[in-house]
Amino acid sequence: MTTVNTPLIALRGIRKSYGGGGHGAPATDVLRGVSLEIHAGEFVAIVGASGSGKSTLMNILGCLDRPSSGQYLFDGRDVSAFDADALAWLRREAFGFVFQGYHLVSSETARENVEIPALYAGTPEAERRARATSLLERLGMGARLDHKPSQLSGGQQQRVAIARALMNGGRIVLADEPTGALDSASGAEVMALLRELASQGHTVILITHDREIAVQAPRVIEVKDGMVTSDGGPAERVGSAPFVRTHGAHGQASAIADLREAMRAAWRVMWGNRFRTSLTLLGIVIGVASVIVMLAVGNGSQQKVMEDMETFGSRTMFVAANPVSSRERGAPLTLDDVRVIADTPNVEAVAPYIEDRVVVQRGSVDHNTEGGGTTLEFSKTLRWPVIEGAMFDEVDERQVAKVAVIGQTVRKRLFADGSNPVGQDILVDKVPFQVIGVLAAKGSSGGEDQDDRVVVPLSSAISRLYGHPNPTWIAVQIQDTDRASQTAGQIEARLAVQRRSRDVRIWNQAEAIRVQMATAQTMTVMLGLIAAVSLVVGGIGVMNVMLMTVRERTREIGIRMATGARQRDILRQFMAEAMLVTSVGGGIGLLLGLVTVLGLKLFGVPVLFSTAACALAFSFSVLTGLIFGFMPARNAARLDPVVALTGE
Ligand code: ADP
Ligand code: MG
């Protein structure tokens, strides 16, 4: 249905008014019914006094803005039906803008600025560069490819802007007062360029307040107070081909290439604002480092508690007879009680211990010590191994053997001559016993030297030393520490039935450890939370800076949109910036955390370093970037192109 006679651009009764939405300001009608037709290949000048509505008209022509009413047909199609992405596509493929104020992205070089429209069209990098370079060379800017806008004169900047307008083909060049900021020589050059473009078949729409400039165009449309007052009409049918839809002609660059490009741009911005970026980074660095350090310290203390408890048997409980009153001793424990305890679920081993003071003798040396009779379960339940010689065994128990193992203190007293105690005879309460083993050192606990003892088989203790079979205490080893309290309760209940009285005491060491572990865990969680909070604070810092960045770069966002960036391109760019900041911060934080943990370790602070914590902290920081970068990025993406372009 598109024919050669279909105007490329047809405006029918276009109106545009501002304000009047009940917010105090009265409505201003800037355009009051503009109708005009422009054919492909025409060179048109729109002229009018300042304030007559020319720029407003150009923004509508270039699909940067929508009219309040009226119809805009582009190549026969009503643009009011186009969504934001379709309009972006039209700006990218059909239009090239040249503004009075050049509107270059200040952080990028001349060539990079020219490349921007191709970036959003998905042109491959090599092709993009080559084309930008050749365009700039054609416009006499070959020697200034890598200059930033601030290093270029006004005329040079405008030439960069024209090259940019031509980057994607520039079928329609919209120039709003392109010479307005230039001296007359540069202005003349720019005009010559536009005339040349027109002669090459580009449709050129020049907007100016200067009649002398306007008359250089074959067709002049005059605008006054938002209305067309005169229109030279198409001078001649240039007969150039109408705008042909070329959607997808460039193909879409891969998502990875897009992301890489966004990262590169993000890096440039970050580098350009080094000081501010490093301040923002600081928050994330501290956050990540503290997550790592605090988790290492928390886990370290947890492990320390565990190790401490291991030495005294984390799975051991003690049962003893409870005196009924201060005078009455109550019924002693019996070996039947031991059997009842051994039959309780979750009980792994039981060691009865008959304890009383004895005198040990060797030669002329004698020593008052704690004597004890117990079973071979002793070593296991109390985690108290024999390190020299051997523990007595079942045979010794059955044969009521006169064998003994001694603690380190007894060894020191009786064997001060340094001889090997194993195999030697000693007297225990005047009864000869043979030393068959030496217990490992245990240190002191509860103010008592645990190593000051001699231990013999239970049967020998009963018949040769004490004459009674009543354990002073019973050590119980359980399987599952989580069920420690339950098991203690069961033992208590069973003994109450067996003894017909609730007269035993149970020290539930496992339970005490569990409580202590829980405390240590709580501390870890608390430390982790504190660290997480600092990371969140860091994230808020990122958000703050991102919001600032978006505000500062509103103009740039507008430029990018005018050159065809879609909302998602803008979103991607700002998200990339936020993520770059947080991942660089995360990386530095990771290193700092590791160094701190190592330092603490050197100073003897118990730390437990985990890669999982590091991974967690790092991904949390990147996530922070995602979350806190999203809002500012979305704000940027949702900006209206005209508002962004004209905004400060
Ligand atoms: P020109 O480019 O011809 O000098 P403009 O199109 O920039 O004129 O502006 C025409 C009129 O519209 C001016 O009076 C200006 O104050 C008004 N105008 C332009 N943009 C806005 C806006 N966003 N809000 C309110 N008034 C505006
Ligand atoms: Mg203007």
UniProtKB/TrEMBL annotation:
PROSITE patterns: ABC_TRANSPORTER_1, ABC_TRANSPORTER_2. It is a multi-pass membrane protein. InterPro entries: AAA+_ATPase (IPR003593), ABC3_permease_C (IPR003838), ABC_transporter-like_ATP-bd (IPR003439), ABC_transporter-like_CS (IPR017871), MacB-like_ATP-bd (IPR017911), MacB_PCD (IPR025857), Macrolide_Exporter_MacB (IPR050250), P-loop_NTPase (IPR027417). Residues 9-250 form the ABC transporter domain. GO terms for molecular function: ATP binding; hydrolase activity. The keyword Cytoplasm does not apply. The chain crosses the membrane at residues 278-297, 525-550, 570-595, 607-630. Keywords: Antibiotic resistance, ATP-binding, Cell inner membrane, Cell membrane, Hydrolase, Membrane, Nucleotide-binding, Translocase, Transmembrane, Transmembrane helix, Transport. It is found in: Cell inner membrane. Belongs to the ABC transporter superfamily. Macrolide exporter (TC 3.A.1.122) family. PANTHER family: MACROLIDE EXPORT ATP-BINDING_PERMEASE PROTEIN MACB, MEMBRANE COMPONENT OF TRANSPORTER-RELATED. This is Pyoverdine export ATP-binding/permease protein PvdT. It comes from Cupriavidus pampae. The lineage of its organism: Bacteria, Pseudomonadati, Pseudomonadota, Betaproteobacteria, Burkholderiales.
